[in-house]
Every structure is written in structure tokens, then in C-alpha cells.
């Protein structure tokens, strides 16, 4: 007696499993494009000999403009400022470009 759940030939079963695997890989591979962009601003030094701005100085200026900072992280050659929203990061970029000179690249 043949089991009831195997009505299709094995080729269809294998093809269906492979299709599901390909779909799963595709979803995970392109998942980063579906996520919202990060609300961060990165400050780099463009000229040698110029140091990174002080995080507290930046915090004071951004807070005075009503921009809430989630975190400030320093790297070897950059500062990364995280915000709660994309709108705050765009507003912070404008403020930082106004208060920092051309020795810094803000992205």
C-alpha cells in the first residue's frame, strides 16, 4: 500500500524544496535593501594634524538645536553619531556642517 502523502513523483518534491531554498536565500541576500537606512552621521578628518572634535562639544551644539543624540562612538579616525530618526540625522548634518570647518568630512 502506498502512503497517501506521496502522490507526486520525487522530482516535483525535490524541485519544490529547491525552489523554497532559493527563495529563502534570495530573501536573506536582499534583506538589507528592505531595512530602513541607519540614522547615523560620520565625521572624518580630511587634513593630517587635525584632531577629531570633542564629543561633548558636538553634543552641546546638537542639543541646543533640539536634536537628540542616541550615542557618540569614536573610531580610530572618525566619530560616529547615532540618532533615533533619519530626520534628526539630516538636521544634525546641517548643524555640523555649519559649526565645523572644512577640515572635516561629514557623511
Radius of gyration: 25 Å
Shape: elongated
In what range is the share of β-strand residues?
A: 15-25%
Count of β-strands: 4
User: Please, what is the average pLDDT?
Assistant: 84
Sheet with the most strands, sense and barrel status? 4 strands, antiparallel
Q: How do the strands line up in the largest sheet? A: 2-3-1-4
Helical residue percent band = 40-55%
Structural class given helices, strands, pairing?
alpha+beta
For the terminal residues, how far apart are their CA atoms?
69 Å
What is the tally of helical segments? 4
Contiguous low-pLDDT stretches (5 residues minimum) are: none
What is the N-to-C order of secondary-structure elements (H for helix, E for strand)?
A: HHEHEEHE
What does the model show?
The chain is elongated. It has helices at residues 10-29, 31-34, 55-64, 86-99, and strands at residues 40-45, 69-74, 78-83, 104-106. By secondary structure, the protein is α+β, with helices and mostly antiparallel strands. A hairpin with a 3-residue loop joins strand 2 (69-74) and strand 3. The protein has a four-stranded antiparallel β-sheet with strand order 2-3-1-4, with helices on one face. The longest helix is centred in the first third of the chain and has 20 residues, at 10-29.
Amino acid at each position: 500500500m502506498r502512503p497517501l502523502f506521496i502522490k507526486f513523483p520525487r522530482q516535483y518534491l525535490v524541485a519544490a524544496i529547491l525552489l523554497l531554498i532559493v527563495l529563502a536565500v534570495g530573501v536573506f541576500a536582499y534583506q538589507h535593501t528592505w531595512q530602513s537606512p541607519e540614522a547615523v552621521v560620520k565625521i572624518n578628518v580630511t587634513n593630517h594634524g587635525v584632531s577629531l572634535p570633542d564629543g561633548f562639544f558636538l553634543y552641546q551644539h546638537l542639543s541646543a538645536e533640539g536634536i537628540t543624540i542616541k550615542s557618540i562612538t569614536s573610531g580610530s579616525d572618525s566619530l560616529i553619531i547615532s540618532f533615533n530618526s533619519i530626520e534628526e540625522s539630516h538636521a544634525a548634518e546641517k548643524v555640523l556642517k555649519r559649526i565645523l570647518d572644512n577640515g572635516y568630512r561629514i557623511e
